[in-house]
Amino acid sequence: MTKEIDDIINKALAQNRKTLSEYESARIMAGEGMPMAKGIIAQDFTNVKNAAEEIGYPVVLKVCSPEVSHKTESGLVAVNLGNEADLEAAFQKINKASSVKEGGFLIQEMVKGERELVIGMIRDPQFGPCAMFGLGGIFTEIMGDVSFRPAPLSEVDALEMIGEIKGRKILDAVRGMPAVNIDSLVQCLMTISRIGMEYEAIQAIDINPLIVRGTSAVGVDALVVLR
């Protein structure tokens, strides 16, 4: 998988791009072992429809382009599309709202879960690649409840990061939801740490949200920024 990842990064650098598309970002994450929502890229509605049938309804439809990082605010995302009629209506609406010149559409499995986390990496000038973990979704910027550690991480480092956030009780069994598999979160953090160490061209990674489905986390939106 390393060759595919190198190809993605090198292609973007050759095009003087600092940001990868969500699909490219997710391919890198999945290629390194990060659990990511299944997604297929498509260019027109026929391919969008075929992709949705392959993945299985319900699905999510998004504009996918390195030009766009805040898709939800721009009305370029539709979630929980349960059938072809819903999909076509969302496609027409998003297509009309989009001003993207280059890119396509990302069809993604609908990952359901009430707990949203964030995981990422930032390359600090002094400390080098640093892993990040915290509460995700809309609460990331509001709460600022995150913890950091310089890479490479040990399993003890990852466990400490998870235990440091103020909202850590959200990981416990609560309101009929099972406790989160902490080992799955540890492995996610170890993976993000390893990516930061291995790919010097990557400046930052943001996987938000990382949704807890059942007891394990699945990334549904990824952004990779290059140096």
What can you see in these coordinates?
With 227 residues, this protein is of the alpha+beta class. It has 2 domains: 2-109, Dna Ligase, domain 1 (2-Layer Sandwich), CATH 3.30.1490.20; 115-226, ATP-grasp fold, B domain (D-amino Acid Aminotransferase, Chain A, domain 1, 2-Layer Sandwich), CATH 3.30.470. Helix content is 35%, strand content 29%. The strands form 2 sheets. Strands 5, 6, 7, 8, 9 and 10 form a 6-stranded antiparallel sheet that branches. A 4-stranded antiparallel sheet has the order 1-4-2-3, with helices on one face. Strand 8 and strand 9 (216-219) form a beta hairpin. Helix 6 (155-164) packs across helix 7 (182-198).
State the main characteristics:
alpha+beta; 7 helices; Dna Ligase, domain 1; six-stranded antiparallel β-sheet; four-stranded antiparallel β-sheet; D-amino Acid Aminotransferase, Chain A, domain 1; globular; 227 residues; 2 domains
Average predicted confidence as pLDDT: 92
How many domains? The number is 2
Number of strands: 10
Class based on secondary structure composition and strand pairing: alpha+beta
